[in-house]
Amino acid sequence: MIVAEQKSLEEIRRMITPYQRVLIVGCGTCMTVCDAGGEREVSFLHSALRLAQAKTGDSQHSFSEHTVKRQCDPEFIDLIADKIAEVDAVLSLGCGIGVQAIAERFPDMPVFPGVNTSFMGMAKELGVWDERCAGCGDCRLEETAGICPITRCTKGILNGPCAGTKNGKCEVSKDMDCAWVLIYRRLERLQQLDKMRRYYPPRNYRAVPRPKRIVSKVGTAAGESNG
Amino acid sequence: MAESLFQEKLHSGQFVVTTEVGPPKGADISEMVHHIDLLKDKVDAINVTDHQSSVMRFPSLGGCIVVKEHGGEPILQVTCRDRNRLALQADLLFAYSRGIRNVLCLTGDSIDVGDHKEVKPVFDVDSVQLMKLIKTMESGTDAAGNELKGAPKFCIGASVHPEADVIEPQLVKFDKKVAAGAEFFQTQGIFDLASLRRFMQYASQFNAKILAGIIVLSSARMAKYMNDNVPGILVPQALIDELATAEKGKGLQKGMEIAVRFIKTIREEKLCPGVHIMAVGNEGIVPSILEAAELAAISS
Amino acid sequence: MYSPTLDNTQRYRGDKTSASSPDHSLIPPCQVACPLHMDIREYVDLAAQGRIMEALQVIREGNPFPSICAYVCTHACESSCRRGQVDEPVAIRALKRFAVEFGGDRMVRAEAETTQVEKVAIVGSGPAGMACAYYLRKLGYPVTIFEAQSEIGGMLRVGIPQYRLPREVLDTEAQRLTQMGIEIRTSTRVVSLDLLFEMSYKAIFITIGAHQSLRLGIEGEDLPGVIDGATFLREVNLGLKPTLGKRVAVVGGGNVAIDAARTALRLGTQKVSILYRRSRAEMPADPSEIEQALEEGIEILFLAAPVRIERRKGKLSVTCIKMELGEPDSRGRRQPVPIKDSEFNTEVEALITAIGQAPQAPQDFRLRIGRGSTIQVDPVTLTTNRPGVFAGGDAVTGPATVTEALAAGRLAASRIDDYLRHRYPLAGKDTHRVLEGELSAETVEMIRKIGRLEPPVLSREVRTSDFKPIELAYDWATAVNEARRCLRCGVGAEITSQDRCASCLTCLRVCPYHVPRLDASGTIQIPIDQCLACGICVAECPAKVIVLRKPYERRHIAEELNHALRSAAEAKLKPFIVGFCCQYGLFGTGTLAALWREAKAGIWIVPVLCIAKVEADHILRAFELGAEGVFIAGCGTQCARENTAASIRQRVAKVKKTLAQIGVEPERIQAFVLEAEQDPGKELDEFIAQVGKLYLASTLMEEVRR
Prior knowledge:
- The complex is a heterotrimer of chains A (227), B (300) and C (706).
- Chain A folds into 2 domains: 2-118, Response regulator (Rossmann fold, 3-Layer(aba) Sandwich), CATH 3.40.50; 137-197, no CATH class.
- In chain A, 30% of the residues lie in helices and 19% in strands.
- Chain A contains 9 helices and 7 strands; from the N terminus they run βαβααβααβαβββααα.
- In chain A, the strands form 2 sheets. A 4-stranded parallel sheet of chain A has the order 3-2-4-5, sandwiched between helices. In chain A, strands 1-6-7 form a 3-stranded antiparallel sheet.
- Helix content of chain B is 40%, strand content 15%.
- Chain C is of the alpha/beta class and 706 residues long.
- Chain C folds into 5 domains: 29-108 and 438-483, Fumarate Reductase Iron-sulfur Protein, Chain B, domain 2 (Orthogonal Bundle), CATH 1.10.1060; 119-211 and 359-420, FAD/NAD(P)-binding domain, CATH 3.50.50.60; 212-356, FAD/NAD(P)-binding domain (3-Layer(bba) Sandwich); 493-548, Alpha-Beta Plaits (2-Layer Sandwich), CATH 3.30.70.20; 555-705, Rossmann fold (3-Layer(aba) Sandwich).
- In chain C, helix 2 (40-48) crosses helix 18, helix 3 (52-62) crosses helix 6 (92-102) and helix 7 packs parallel to helix 15 (402-420).
- The longest helix of chain C is centred in the last third of the chain and has 25 residues, at 681-705.
């Protein structure tokens, strides 16, 4: 799951200051799940912005709202093209991908991010999200008993641990487990400690420069496939 | 043929003593120079720390050059926190060109414990990979496989943490470091000789020389602070209590007593081939410790 | 046009379902079991809010004579009440009685006007006849009831003793029928249907009941002192006082036998025994009736039957034989078999036979008669073999319950209307599914167990001394608390769009009863037969796709809020404070309503059906429309659902955080949880004072700014 957190109301208000008609667009997928930008959050933010406007009396926005199933596919955004045409700015509560997707599709429309997209992670329990994957493109979970050293080790080292661990916790915080202690323990349990004894060479940070691209299908142009 | 005097001393069979100086936060290095002068003839080598605890300081490389200029034997501390492979290789070539031959390879403390909490951590390589990198350069090529015009040669060291509460992963790491080319080790602060003994039993199967790290504490409060804030340091309660017994103003003396006690025991029991004394801001007292521990002055 | 379906859901409070918010509720088992298919869930819910008059209104929509049922209904609903799977069924009949007593049923006037010309005759004024008359009259027909006895009511009058159904109740209903313009001719026995047709009646409903007692078929049955139960009760109910003597035996095991026995006791008989030929488990009488009879000191001899009656020295000598249960008969009931040589003798002054009754349709009616002397009818149209002649009630089914008779009368009315309007009777189509299934053990475990609160009854000594009704009505607190035990089957949560559901599993994690679950394909389902409609998942769903199945529930709060705030625009008192207050228990009508009246500040109450349903958005809206402070008051440990207070508190915390960013102080919102009789006054006073201070501060700032 892509996990994000809503920006502060103050920051959002500052962003939309120069624009009169603002459309708040939510996302029905990841942002709904992590309570940052789904239908309910859109509605709540909408109310909060109206209320803020009423309280401070210093702005004259008119808001509208809509939640699409996903913002990262243009077909979904196209469904609200008419709504976008009626406003002066779009406040997207989608993740960073969604914000950019809308901006790309409507290059004459100012599009602002309403959430801070933070990481790929999972729910530990209701309402608590933990980062789990950095999207390094070179998954090595086979070597570390299913615990990612790049994400869960704060230094992201591959031949761990470092000397900073204390009580099985990372030097950064008493609440953060030392990933390499976790890895050691689980490898031991799986009887795969030899994997930890291997030397792991430095990461290949990028095969091609960022932003990366993956091609999963080769497209066919219309009329090409026959013969 | 040893790469450096320090390396020679390591293999000499005599008790090795190293210490460290911490560079200043600023361009005024007069105090550091003073410490270097104070210590250069009394110890076998001087480490210059590299942004210790992730606090921005005058660089280790610069400090080592000063040590060299003043006739001392430097150990360059290289952390992986701040530089990628390009920068690391470049610094090592530069260090070699200035006669610096001893390198301590460290992963480095995390950014969060330092004073520049918002900067980007690099960690392009870790300490093991760094040692391999050096070995690669020694063989005549850079990390990308290109031939070097002039290969450097170093005496490579690393750190180890014999008192880690979960020791097994540390041992795995230790093995890897030895395999990667570490000839000497400077341990984290030793406060429990029993752990050290156990560790040395394990470590004795390897060729690497282990120098026991001795931290000079100055007060119970300092000890507690280090427990809470400094990575890898764990002062046992018994020592904190002992420090607390010192009269006001005499804390440092107590700390020195404790340090000397440790050094003597290690030497007498032949636990380790040497010690690495860390005075953490009190470099001035190191000579007294050396004297009290009956460690003869070494001249290069 | 009324069609007999299970769906008796009426639309109350003017709420019309529309395409955008359809009613997907399921029909609960209580409604299915009730012969009249009353909307029990609705009126129990209203009772739980203390809204007794509205509860009564709902009752009246489904039942023309609720006061009668309130006393004597055999409550099939309670037997199928799913609360019984948790602890004990909800005391539905007692709640209906409470509604009838306190809702002012006596004052309701029934009105009708004549819009049709065809006259309808109803033969027999028992519950079926009364109901048929009522509904036909409502449809505008001129109706005449012919009753052979001197007073109307059929079995209600002559069969059921007054300690079970007070005379005044029946009289009030009779009066209502007359007020509607129904002609009632008592002491008029109908002997010929042809005559009725000659009198220009276009349709006839035969509902003569089953008053003919079955004979024992033993020697001595016709001796003086042997009375049949139906006659006995009739005489007593019509004011006669038959002499019985000191010891009386009653033969039989049904309600009539029990009624006869308890009536005999109240007439002063010292010793009353009942002889029943099977065991207690097979006794057809209402279990609570049996219980009460035993409490009153009536002896019941099980597995005993009389074989011979003789007269000796002015008393009756009854020879009885002991029985044992043998093989089951065609209906599954085990047949009693006499035990050889187990005769015993008992001496009584009177013997009352009550082994069953049968209808007695005159031969002149020329109706086809079936088994048990009952009149045969087509089950769909209720027509007999004669055109224009319909029949229903005990005359068709044999002795059955009052409520079934009412249902038959209601059905007959619509069938007669079809007939007279030359319409083919269409089978009714149920628009709602029936709720089936038992509560899972997991869900039951999470439901707080509360025992059933029974209505008070007169003590044994007091009640056997006369014919006053033995069961008293609830007091308010007990009634409301009993009603709150209802599980609200069938109005639970549903996911309106699986497409917009993000499968975030919030509903699954937040439900106190572990109801939402993933099916095999990984889709979230909220099984309607498990959901207790607490509303927490509705308020928490991040995609806002969950609703409760009754539209009133869903739109309720938003509408109430809009209404409150529009009216409050004219509020004179400041600061203006909005309170979301739970309506259940006595809070709505009692404690919190008092606050409103006292009006210490401009408090406006937005009634909510449980504070778990208040969403963060609602609170923001209150502020947006001018509220200076918002409080949420709920019933704490009294809440019939779990985790509701915790749920709303979390939302309040979130709202406070957001409001802080706008400069609205967190002190302006507060969630209160009140205990039953706790006076919220003190806490609320403090809150109001707090908000008042902030209000003054802000008005000052306003002035300064200007």
